[in-house]
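for ur thesis appendix - Pyridine nucleotide-disulfide oxidoreductase. copy paste whatever u need, i formatted it the way the template wanted (i think)
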Amino acid sequence: MAEYVIIGNGTAAVGCIEGIRSIDSNGAITVISGEEHHVYSRPLISYLLEGKTDLERMKYRPADFYEKNKVNLVYGKAAKIDTKKQVTILEGKGRFGYDKLCICTGSSPFVPPFEGLDKVKKKFSFMTLDDALDLEKVLTEKSKVLIVGAGLIGLKCAEGIAERVGSITVCDLADRVLSSILDAECAAYMQKELENHGVSFMLGDTAVKFDKNKAYMKSGAEVDFDILVLAVGVRAETELAKQAGCDINRGIIIDTGMDTTAANIYAAGDCAEGYDSSIGANRVLAILPSAYMQGRCAGINMAGGSSEITDAIPMNSIGFFGLHCATAGAYPEDGEIYEERTDKGIKRLYFKDSKLAGYMLIGDVNRAGIYTSLVREQTVLDEEMTEKVKKMPSLAIFSDEKRRTKLGGVV
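the 3d part is after this line
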């Protein structure tokens, strides 16, 4: 009987479990979880603080998921992978042998070495359920919150606590919010919605020093706060893989089958650096759908099946206070940009070489799935099809075969 070990207990791990079980119903699966929680959906931690969900509804799979899939769930931290003996060694105690191993360690907050940070008592990250629960304990209706970082994590934190605190200030060295996925105009549109709900911004500026409850900004300004949230960025957790001999760049380097350069070791999720078809090169795609797909692909291959991912692209679907935003693909500067603007949102499509290379949608995101398929599949568009994509995108754009696949055999 095969022995499988999965390090991590997030979305990628679930995909890996389900991938293994699609091929091997009897092999022994051990999941090593650094968090002492049932697998949950991390994007929901802000909604927990808003009161829009609870711990039970946050579960990414039902309570009996591990039992049904015959998974041995172990709470602990993996300290070392002995590749010669094919054993994973936990901190303190515990050793688990494997025939195939998948590293799904995710990412961790990047915290710059701010001067005086050690003097700040109420400081938090905002990536895990425990982070959210710890932050919730100190929130009051008079709290003055400073969030360092205007990316997705920082802004979701702002949304989650906006109705529970006195004030929120978000600072970022970038000149716009969500700078990794939105251009200046689209970012300004999202920023306005956040400001309408009481969030203040200091952009092009950031904290450089702290003295207890005071932040000294790069611009020379000073900001008083009661609570500090650090959401500067994240880094892929690669140390275990590096020790095991896997090649590392910004993430653990994997091929299209999620195999690393170390024998019998796979990687998936935010810790991995896989192929991005929108740029034709490897990079970390730290998004939930990719984590699951990579995990499932790894699990299938670990169990002796055959699977690969050659069409992964960056994509995001987010929202703040009811204003939705969806993005995907690349935004080439040397292509054609098609734009529609209304009082309810923005649609921006990027075309290059007779293909839809990427898009940004704010407000109406109902056609995002069609746009994403066109980007992912690199569909070649003639002039008539291009006009349909711009004005009236529908499944009619795809071939009969593609439509059958997307509609489950019905055209």
